[in-house]
Amino acid sequence: MRSIAVRAQAIEASLGNVQVLHGINLAFPAGRWTSIVGPNGAGKSTLLKVLAGLLPCTGSVTLLGQPLATLPGRVRARQLAWLGQNEVTGDDLTVWDVAMLGRLPHQAWLAAPSPADHAAVAQALRATQAWDWRGRTLGQLSGGERQRVLLARVLAGQGQVLLMDDPLANLAPPHQADWLVLVRELIRQGKTVISVLHEISMALHAEEMVIVAKGRVTHQGACADPATHRALEEVFEKRIAIHALGDQWVALPKFSQGYPNS
Question: Which run of H or of E encompasses 36?
């Protein structure tokens, strides 16, 4: 039986005075890729932040069998890597320095980067095809290039669990395909990936899918399961349809006459 990398039990969370998550119970299997999808405002990003320990909540989250709330920050950062939406990083930092930030949990206080740190950063920059920019500053890069550098920072941390919120933002289709190859390699290495994705067809490449609507989980299952496809079509009000294309699944819009009510 496959072990559980991340477990959420009876999770409730609010933003300001508005409750966003309502009684979430989830188990994310280790060594697999799970995509989280749902309509805008469903609570997907809030859920991912709770799993990362970045938002207060009621209920409990366990990471690799240990209560997340009790883990020292450095230990948590070594085990769990985070890539958030619209992350702000100093434009004057070089690409190399941004990627090296992922190694901070592995370094002693004020210690210089070790050979292992340099090797991990170089490997991450090559994996994201950002190596050639290592001496440039972040301010000199396009949105898609910046996103690849932030992904390199995540990879450099070598965490066992990777949480990514909208990792394909600003990436052109060829680099989205590169990201997919990277994730599959991470899974092959035994890592666990949990990603919030807006590109449903890309999300269907995952092994598991969690569907969220109005702060509640409406479905969790295998991406290849017809029940998952029906749940996807339902949560998007039958405005998409899931079709087989070769050995993969794609989500295509269903057009109707006129415009939907706003």
Answer: strand 33-37
Q: What CATH number did the domain enclosing 200 receive?
A: 3.40.50.300
**What whole-number distance in Å separates Cα of residue 205 and Cα of residue 202?**
5
CA neighbor of 104 nearest in space, from 146, 63, 154: 154
Cβ(196)–Cβ(48) under 8 Å? yes
DSSP letter (8 states) at residue 19? E
User: With contact defined as beta carbons under 8 Å apart, do 162 and 109 qualify?
Assistant: no
- Distant-in-sequence, close-in-space partners of 85: CB < 8 Å, separation ≥ 6: 45, 165, 166, 169
Phi, then psi, of 29 in degrees rounded to 5: -65, 145
Residue 110 CB-density burial (10 A; 0-12 exposed, 13-18 middle, 19+ buried): exposed
Render pLDDT for 194-244 as a digit per residue (tens, 0 to 9): 999 999 999 999 999 999 999 999 999 999 999 999 999 999 999 999 999
Domain for residue 176, yes or no? Answer: no
pTM (global) more than 0.90: yes
At 162, list the tokens. 């990777």
- Is the pLDDT assigned to residue 262 strictly greater than 50? no
Judge whether 144 lies within some domain. yes
- Band of pLDDT at residue 260, cut at 50, 70 and 90: low
DSSP state of 145: H
Residues 104 and 146 reside in one and the same domain: yes
Among the candidates 103, 136, 159, a domain finishes at: 159
**How many domains does the structure of the chain reveal?**
2
